[in-house]
Amino acid sequence: MFKAEGTYDVTVTRAILGEAKFCQDAGAFDVCIEVQDANGVSDWWRGEWSNRPGVGNAANRPRWELTMETLKKIGFPSDNLFEQLQADAEGVANIPCLVGVQTTATVKMTEKEGKIYYNVHYLGDGGNAPKGLNLGSLLAAYGMTAPAAPQVQPQGAAPQPAAQPVRQPAAASGEIPAFPGSAAPNGPFANLKR
User: What is the pLDDT of residue 136?
Assistant: First the structure.
């Protein structure tokens, strides 16, 4: 089991269908993926296969769909889980096409009844790290220009002053400054160019 939060490079060592841990609806089960890092530390990720709705931003989607999305993210080759199933020596339904897949596992800490657990929460997305926006493209979309990038000076040359950052008028104390174009009828998105 993992002993710290983080995103780890892992390999899938086992992929099976297991009894549902939380959902007791008829026909519900869990897709259980065992992952292991380079140091031999392993744990299980569970994806629920049921018609129960997801939570938060995924509240409008059934859990089986969210689980399938994760499976495809890590390399599942089909839209149909059942066509990839095989029975192992004990008769357990397994998904052999996922064994050996290299991916990432994001581990989060949970505290329950005074005890701390580290569970695999996400597979295959590196923890959903945000993708940065290009400053020039962002400012252009709002009808602004980006400051000139600093130029590399040859050795011995006099240093040039750094480009000034994009500035906005100061707001009154306790007020958030307005984004360019906020006085327009559609707020800050009035100037947005597609």
Answer: 78
Q: How far apart are CA 177 and CA 180, in angstroms?
A: 9
Contacts of 181 (CB under 8 A, 6+ apart): 142, 143, 187, 188, 189, 190, 191
Q: Which helix (H) or strand (E) holds 110?
A: strand 102-112
Task: Answer for the pair 177, 168: CB distance below 8 angstroms, yes or no.
Answer: yes
Mean pLDDT of the chain: 81
Q: How far apart are CA 27 and CA 24, in angstroms?
A: 8
Question: In a 3-state reduction of DSSP, which class is residue 145?
Answer: coil
Give kind and range of the element (H or E) at residue 71.
Answer: helix 63-73
Q: Contact at 8 Å (CB) between 13 and 36?
A: yes
Q: Residue 170 and residue 146: Cα distance in Å, rounded?
A: 19
User: What DSSP element (H or E) covers 70?
Assistant: helix 63-73
Predicted TM-score (pTM) of the model is: 0.64
Q: Please give the radius of gyration of the chain, using alpha carbons only, rounded to the nearest integer.
A: 25
Domains of the chain, by residue range, sit at 6-123, 132-148+164-194
pLDDT in tens, 149-175: 666 666 665 655 555 555 444 444 555
What single string gives the DSSP state of each residue in 25-53? STT-EEEEEEEEETTS-EEEEEEEESSSB
